[in-house]
Design goal:
There is one protein chain. The chain is α/β, with parallel strands linked by helices. The chain is 32% helix and 23% strand. It has 12 helices and 24 strands. Helix 1 (13-25) runs parallel beside helix 8. The two termini are 12 Å apart. 47% of the residues are buried.
């Protein structure tokens, strides 16, 4: 009997958890497992704002894929740019640019998401995201560069523009990014005697009427109060009308001289989803509670890619694309792929949300574990304890804990590491959003190929 070919797309929380479970439960004679990912690590995404702030090193949140004790998965270094579910072929662009084709019997789609953008003049060219490790490192370099350039400048208008920082998006990513980076600049100004601390201004804006509504009114108001006491100007019900290289226009008419625009206003599923030609719900593939994609044989989807029914809430509720759901969906997807291979019954995915944690840097945090609202040091202990325990390897845990202790004892460093190039990179450059094929192009690529079975 031929071995089943199982292909997992994406090395995020769901994809890596799925691969590890497949390796543990399937014998080498049962299946050949492959993983498509452009990088050789699993990124612990919730800690990216701390990388941008320099609290954590990039390596500490990039967990090696090859530390699994039973590692036997073939890692294909590249990105999936199209899937032909009828031919059962995945089109892959390797990191060298070479196009290759991977046939499969079962495919698990966990490609994650990309930054959601809108048709705002200048946005894509002048904004930076917080979705990848490279973006976090770039943003840190850029922010410190603005302090260096402002300190050296004799032009008051230039100095004003370089010391204005705008973060768009009042969700977790935007709030944590603004809070962590504002803390860095407020500490850094002590090292810049020619800068007036009052000139450094951070703005957090969001079109929604509330900050992080998932936290509830009380904790959301607490977080808002913490930010404003730090001097961060929070504007709700406001977004960006136009973004230029040296100024930003808000939808309320304000024009702000600014050289730093960080865009964290939500995410959308990977463009890979659109190449399958399948039914979607809010941009995510329509899947059954067993994570099977409707109408497609051997296709499973999870995390940001799948609109997974939330059985714990009932009704038409869909699981939010959070790390805790993705981890557990990865396990369920692996179990159901194994059950399909062995002709056994599948089980539905069900998980009750455990709560939310928001790290605002230093001793500031708000958390809601198991529905219990916390703030200050207790919330910080819960937030960091949760993130630390969720790291996949002991090496990663040791690095993160060491970084936290070192930062608490020694404080921040204000060093540019060289990620900022002479020509600023755009959102498309960081997230490769222009690389994907259309369904028609996928079929053209796979038309001449013959697939086993």
């Amino acid at each position: 009997m031929a071995r089943s070919r199982i292909l997992v797309v994406g090395a995020g929380f769901g994809g890596v958890e799925c691969v590890q479970r497949l390796e543990r439960k399937l014998g080498p004679d049962e299946a050949e497992i492959s993983l498509v990912t452009p990088v050789s690590y699993q990124l612990y995404l919730p800690l990216l704002p701390q990388v941008a702030a320099g609290v954590l090193t990039p390596q500490s949140v990039a967990v090696s894929l090859r530390r699994s004790r039973k590692h036997r998965t073939r890692i294909i270094p590249g990105g999936a740019i199209g899937v032909d579910p009828k031919a059962k072929i995945c089109v892959i662009r390797k990191i060298t640019g070479e196009i290759t084709y991977q046939p499969y019997d079962y495919i698990v789609l966990a490609p994650g998401s990309i930054t959601r953008t809108f048709d705002i003049p200048g946005l894509v060219d002048n904004a930076r995201g917080m979705k990848t490790l490279a973006e976090a490192a770039y943003v840190r370099d850029h922010v410190i560069a603005q302090l260096d350039l402002a300190d050296a400048s004799t032009d008051e208008k230039e100095r004003e523009a370089r010391l204005q920082f705008v973060v768009v998006g009042g969700g977790y990513a935007g709030t944590e990014t603004a809070a962590c980076l504002q803390r860095v600049t407020s500490h850094a100004v002590r090292r810049y005697p020619r800068l007036d601390p009052k000139q450094i201004k951070w703005h957090l804006i969001d079109i929604a009427p509330k900050l992080m509504p998932e936290l509830g009114d009380k904790l959301g108001a607490t977080a808002l109060d913490i930010l404003r006491k730090r001097g961060i100007e929070v504007s709700l019900g406001v977004s960006i009308a136009k973004a230029g290289p040296d100024e930003v226009t808000f939808t309320d008419g304000r024009v702000l001289p600014c050289r730093t625009l960080i865009w964290t206003a939500g995410v959308v599923a990977s463009p890979l989803i659109g190449t399958l030609g399948a039914d979607t719900v809010h941009g995510r593939l329509m899947v059954s509670p067993e994570l099977r994609v409707s109408g497609l044989d051997g296709v499973f989807a999870l995390g940001d890619a799948g609109a997974v029914p939330d059985l714990a809430k009932g009704g038409d509720a869909i699981c939010p694309p959070t790390a805790q759901h993705a981890l557990r969906q990865g396990r369920t997807a692996a179990d159901n792929v194994i059950a399909t291979v062995r002709d056994q019954p599948l089980r539905p995915y069900e998980h009750k949300d455990l709560g939310l944690v928001v790290d605002l840097g230093g001793r500031d945090a708000v958390s809601k574990p198991m529905g219990v609202p916390l703030r200050g040091l207790p919330a910080q202990a819960v937030a960091r304890g949760y993130h630390w325990s969720a790291l996949r390897t002991n090496v990663a845990k040791a690095r993160v804990l060491t970084n936290w202790v070192l930062n608490a004892v020694a404080g921040d460093d204000f060093v540019r590491t060289g990620f900022q190039a002479q020509k600023p990179a755009s959102l498309h450059d960081f997230e490769y959003t222009n690389a994907y094929l259309t369904p028609e192009q996928v079929r053209e690529h796979t038309a001449s190929l013959t697939v086993r079975g």
